[in-house]
Amino acid sequence: MRNGERHQRIAYLGPEASFTYLATKSLFPNEELEAFSTIPECIEAVSEEKVDLAVVPLENTIEGTVTLTIDYLYHEADLYIVGDCLSKIQQHLMVHKNQKDNWQSIEEIYSHPHALAQCHKYLYYRFSSVPLQRYSSTSAAAKLVSENPDRCIAAIGNVSSAEKYDLEIVQKNIHDFQFNHTRFLVLSKSNTRLPVDHSEGKAKTTLMITLPVNVSGALHQVLSVFAWRKLDLSKIESRPLKTGLGEYFFIMDVHADENGAMMKGAMEELAALGCNVKSLGTYYTFLTRE
Amino acid sequence: MRNGERHQRIAYLGPEASFTYLATKSLFPNEELEAFSTIPECIEAVSEEKVDLAVVPLENTIEGTVTLTIDYLYHEADLYIVGDCLSKIQQHLMVHKNQKDNWQSIEEIYSHPHALAQCHKYLYYRFSSVPLQRYSSTSAAAKLVSENPDRCIAAIGNVSSAEKYDLEIVQKNIHDFQFNHTRFLVLSKSNTRLPVDHSEGKAKTTLMITLPVNVSGALHQVLSVFAWRKLDLSKIESRPLKTGLGEYFFIMDVHADENGAMMKGAMEELAALGCNVKSLGTYYTFLTRE
Q1: What is the CATH architecture of B9-89+181-188?
Q2: ipTM of the complex in this document
Q3: B63–A37: do the CB atoms touch at under 8 Å?
Q4: What are the tens digits of pLDDT across the range B60-111?
Q5: In sequence order, which residues have a C-beta less than 8 Å from that of residue A31 and are 6 or more positions away?
Q6: Among A81, B2, B54, B211, which one is most buried in terms of CB atoms within 10 A?
Q7: CA nearest A42 in B: which residue?
Q8: Is the Cβ pair B179, A241 closer than 8 Å?
Q9: How far apart are CA B98 and CA B151, in angstroms?
Q10: A contacts of B242 (beta carbons < 8 Å)
Q11: How far is CA A201 from the centre of its chain?
Q12: Residue-wise pLDDT tens digits, A203-218
């Protein structure tokens, strides 16, 4: 928020204390945040201008089917990416404060099934005989623990869940893969750019490219367009359009501004090759405060 | 199972009546299926030879974080893919049989948050004022409905959940994207091939390739190795090795046998270019019975 302006309204994938909330709060500490319960609801909120921006997970999350974000952006909504950020997905073991000295004899552990899976090795080596209870979200699990001060049970979740429900974190960072990050996108109805005060230097453009036909080497030809111009790709992912029929689209992140001469040339050539190219905008990666 | 042999034991990502169960049952109708509660547990079961094979989702599922499968295969387990299959993810609205004439006045709808998200448009247009209740799995939601014959409530889930809990499907295929499929992998400890009686014709090889350095055009160079040999790719996906540091590995599906002359040549050249190449094996896509 800049001086004299109203607070921006930011939709995020809830519930409150979710990993998306953590990322959104870090990006927009002074704005008005509103939780929605699904990715499509977040996308529609910004599409219908009920909010100014929406923050949704793109990759590797426990909270949403990530392909839903891509499919909605490709098939449904006319939105732009105005920023992205990477957040560490850190899972902690937490108990009620009354139980903080008893945590080594926990009788049950509650969390979202995906969070339990992410902590598989820790749970296997440390609590192999303790029953795991599957819950609809990590924060719902934390809430349950907070409501049962007399039971020696634990939840697995993030710092924000522990704070919201006043739980004691007794083991930090119990997830298996330490380099695990989730990427979040900031979506807007207009192709503007967020004011950059703490971002990584390079501008990035996300393209969705449909190949004209599924011929051997078509992707190679598409990449040639970027390669000889020394335009660097930081992500490429194929998605089937109609499974089994050999039609694909590709999501690519290119480290360049869509208004630059090289990118304009590349996009014109892709169109001339018969590709359908949709730019989701040029934006910067925001650094989250951790 | 062939005549005279023991039943094979197949691990799958549960709970029973999950989408993975449906795919596994279709692939192995006569074998002994065993549910595990997380993807890592399925992978370890086959790795430690507690079971013969494991079936896990790779893409676009509501049951597991898909990247967990890729990360475990890359970083942890020494397993091979011996088959894959594509299954339609079909979501249905189901009620207790006592309530089958009252379903238009449902008071609450229960399901996994991701399944609710997949049916967003149907729910928005048809039941916008009905509260949605998030549950840990679609089959847990079906179980709840089956235990409350007097309440006018519904669950969203697959055919198998309806059958298991004897519910009435009152609206079929209420998911937003009709071409939605999930891909499942069949994993084995040995690089054998499943006997093919009902598969798509072409052999496929999955490679995990780490680029030597993150230079502009390195991926293009890698694809050249496949393109001039007319080796067709049906999937490519980049995954960060250490986020922010610009190191990637790529998962590629190539329509060719790893023992063929062209593939051997391609893999030797990739190694000569400084790439780290790991083949997860050559296999066929099984057609599921629907």
Answers
A1: 3-Layer(aba) Sandwich (3.40)
A2: 0.80
A3: no
A4: 555 555 677 887 888 877 899 999 988 888 999 999 999 999 999 999 999 9
A5: A1, A7, A8, A9, A10
A6: B54
A7: B117
A8: yes
A9: 9
A10: 179
A11: 21
A12: 899 999 988 766 667 7
